[in-house]
Amino acid sequence: MDLKKLASTLIPDDNLLPLEEYEKQYPERQLEKGAEVTRLAPSPTGFIHLGNLYSALADERIAHTTGGIFYLRIEDTDLKRKVDGAVESVIRSLDYFGVNFDEGAEIDSPLNKYGPYYQRRRASIYRAYAKDLIERGLAYPCFCTEDELNAVREEQTANKEITGYYGKYAKCRNLSEEQIYANLKAGKPFVIRLKSQGDTSNKITFRDAIKGDITVTENDQDVVILKSDGIPTYHFAHAIDDHFMHTTLVIRGEEWLSSLPIHLELFKVLGFRLPKYGHTCSLMKVDNGVKRKLSKRKDPELSLDYYRSAGYYPKAVVKYLMTILNSNFEEWERKNPQADYRDFKFSISKMGKSGALFDIDKLNDISKAELSTLSAEQTYDFLNGWVSEFGTDKDRQHFADGQYIIKILNLICGIGGKKRRKDIVRAESGVRMIDYFFDDTFAPDYCYRFDKATVNSVIDGFAAVYSEADDNSAWFAKVKQIAADNGFAAEMSDYKANPENYKGSVADVAEILRIAVTGMPNSPDLCTVMGILGASRTLARLNAGKR
Ligand code: GLU
Hints:
The chain is mostly helical. It is built from 23 helices and 13 strands.
């Protein structure tokens, strides 16, 4: 068969360059020895998830600790999955977590010399290589229809055979020249398939950068390399792109492991040096005692947007992911509590080989601990950032008074006090925690444990003597007096010795006042809360809190 003629009939494009020209266009990168070139290669679906951040963090750390490059390539060969604004959203989402690209799609960088970074814009390179494979007898046109392929799959399933297009099932592999041209003449649509040279009885040992040695069998599937619209499949496009973009290390999800034999064969027939591959383990969670993969449908915490809209402190999420990425990170952190996580020596060999457990409680603990290292002003900035994007109009009005919020934060975080509190888990819950300091979001639950007459008498008694000028001890002396006046023990020790002599203790009296003023039985130091609210608001709340 005249393969050259066949190749130019199937791929008649006259804009294709000789292959060596592409090599010249994308010369080796000038990097230090040992520098790794990594990439994130998402489809522009608009859904960016924790798994993407997990591998992006590994990619970024490895590139940047070795003096390499981390770039963004958009795998947009499947138009059905394309969502407008998705690329910007990937960049913005990762930037929120401090993960930045050196070059790539929509990245403004002088390093952008290996683009275009959108696969659809690289069509001619893929076509040139597919044409070359046809000329070398390593690829062929396939005219099978969807129905024919389905019938083959059904037959294979019924026979309990491996499904796919291979061996005797690869009907178009051995079409004669006449048959091919007759099909073309009849206008039948076709795809281009790899003419696999592999044999599944041959084993290949492959060293995965994360999982270690893996044995796979050779590929024998005649996979599609160019679809009927001339656009490549992931298999073919990624091999060509990682070659020309000089990727040295491909970190991707373990769902790709089963296609690895195809990729090994493609690199071989294309004559490209194989990059290192590291397949990350899936993120798992324990659900009702059963360990399962995080799912897009069931788990909102899989989406990265969730962490932004719930107001997670980005550094906490990153630190948490570091603890699952590298088993020795936590110990390093304990020894270097002040250090930046970027000072940690990230190592791909310390990455987990199987199912990483994602534990939101642990993330929450890390988040609390991280937030408790901030000053009141820094906490304000963080909460305010969340409020301006995700808060309500009322939140925005409240946060306009920075001085007032900072006073509240000093109190609720215990800043300057004996013990720094760790109550704020994330911005959303932090903002809700201070709602009661504003009348328009004050939603009291008057859950008094005493009768109406007692409650009202305690409140009236205290309101009559309250003075904003009182310090903590003068304030407390007044509460004790009200306790004594109303049949409560002014001293805890008296109450403990003879509880039957009293209605309750001074603590119960303080609780009545606390419920009236804050709407809750628990709050930070009540005297300070009253001070922050100011006398007129405190007195109004006391009055409104009577039953
Ligand atoms: N586009 C592929 C995906 O989103 C990329 C896999 C890879 O990193 O090679 O899963």
